[in-house]
Amino acid sequence: MEVFHGSPLKAPAVEIVDLSSEHGVDDNKREIERDDASSPETDIGEDDDHLSLYEDMLDTQAPSDWEDEPTDLCSVEESFVFRKRLRLVGEDQFITETIEAGTITAKKLCTAFGIRPPPFLEGQPDYKYFPLLGLGITRELSKRVKLAQYNTIDDAVRLLKKSKNIVVLTGAGISTSLGIPDFRSKETGLYSQLEHLGLTDAQEVFDITIFREDPSIFYSVAKDILPSTRKFSPTHAFIKLLQDKDKLLTNFTQNIDNLESYAGILPEKLIQCHGSFATATCVECGYRVRCEEIYKDLKAGRVARCDRCIRNLRVKPFGIKRKRSTNGLSTSKKKRQSYEDSTDDEDYDVVVAGVMKPDITFFGEDLPATFHDRLTKHDKDLVDLVLVIGTSLKVAPVSEVSGFLPPETPQIYISREPCQHVDFDIDMLGECDTIVTELCRRAGWDLKHEMIKEDEISVQLHEGYESRYSFRTETA
């Protein structure tokens, strides 16, 4: 089994080699692989399609986050021990100590690497799980390795004070203190609030194909995600403070609320990976406006139409018809909407103005070129510290940034919940505002913001971890 490092941002994070291929397995590889590849009873691993299916099973959550799963799972603590042991002794010795020694089944061991046992393998012999386990081990070994010299809060403070080129990667968690919901929290996140729409997946609200077919779905919920304030959080102020101290190299934000700009982050220091509500563009003619011009429609849940298209249509003779616009899709996929004129001719509609789409990046759209260019041609060679704040890193390709940057660069994680699929050097868990406030206090920095209170902040090391901490505000 080969392990590949440094995969590009536009490619999968881990390149998988077919375990049963003659090019993917050495003659001297361990018996577990030879038995699986040669077994006449198994059809697993016979071609790349099977491995693609397995790769879809790789999960980015810890077993403790899974719901309605069998009880035969590795606990978080067991998973940590297995992963640590794998890196310490290597995969051959690890397999010898576990699967070959009979101390654990391959099915259960898969869960230590964040893999849900797929339903189609339920009841199958344990060797059927070998290729899936191989994928999990390959992915684990391809991850960035934690730097052993950074473990404490004081280490984090020293890194902040000495670093001159800090990359800050932010997500929705830095805005939740302002009442702006994140996306994935189970009860309060935006996706959980959109279940009433009857979509197969709430994320379809932000699917570009769905938007082109029926923009009213997005517009019906736009008011819930439309920035309602220019007020920014203490965490935004912290990033601005890094800029003021000439320490900020780049702030890559996944947020679409544009609050980084309001906080004073300079345009040349800011990459809005997923776009923002600052502007909107017509999907037909490309006409771009400040998003404020369509705020009334967004807030009313009404599909906004392009003013320039409307002006052009007014100068044309009434009644001219053309092929119905599909915004790039075939007419077989286009559904007639309530806002479109009806006609007995199913192939034609009265000409309508193009739909205005806020310039946020939908699923299925490319990220702005500035994201890749800045990261690969500029930041990679300069960065000396990475701060990941308020994001679960579950949306590619932004989720791959941590693994793309030089492995010797220290990385610190700040968020409510731990990120299970990336090994950061120091994890600080809690409210982002609370954590950055305490870091600034310890660094002797004057972080000014009206939301910062003089409450005492307690810091506690997680049991079983050497570099994971919880931060809590102790109110009187």
Can you offer a commentary on this structure?
The protein has 476 residues and is of the alpha/beta class. 30% of the residues lie in helices and 13% in strands. The chain contains 17 helices and 13 strands. The protein has helices spanning 31-38, 48-55, 76-89, 91-97, 106-112, 130-142, 153-162, 190-193, 208-213, 215-225, 234-244, 259-263, 295-300, 307-314, 369-377, 401-404, 432-443; strands at 166-170, 248-253, 270-272, 275-282, 288-290, 321-323, 348-350, 356-360, 385-389, 411-415, 426-429, 456-461, 468-474. An eight-stranded mixed sheet has the order 3-2-1-9-10-11-13-12, sandwiched between helices. A three-stranded antiparallel sheet has the order 5-4-8, with no helix packed on it. The longest helix has 14 residues, at 76-89. The chain starts with 30 loop residues before the first helix and ends with a strand. The model is unreliable at 1-64 and 318-350 (pLDDT under 50).
DSSP summary, beta strand count: 13
What share of residues are in beta strands? 5-15%
Overall outline: globular
Main pleated-sheet profile: 8 strands, mixed
Q: What order do the helices and strands follow?
A: HHHHHHHEHHHHEHEEEHHEEEHEHEEHEE
Q: Can you list the strand order of the major beta sheet?
A: 3-2-1-9-10-11-13-12
Overall pLDDT metric: 78
Tally of helical segments: 17
Radius of gyration in whole Å, from Cα? 25 Å
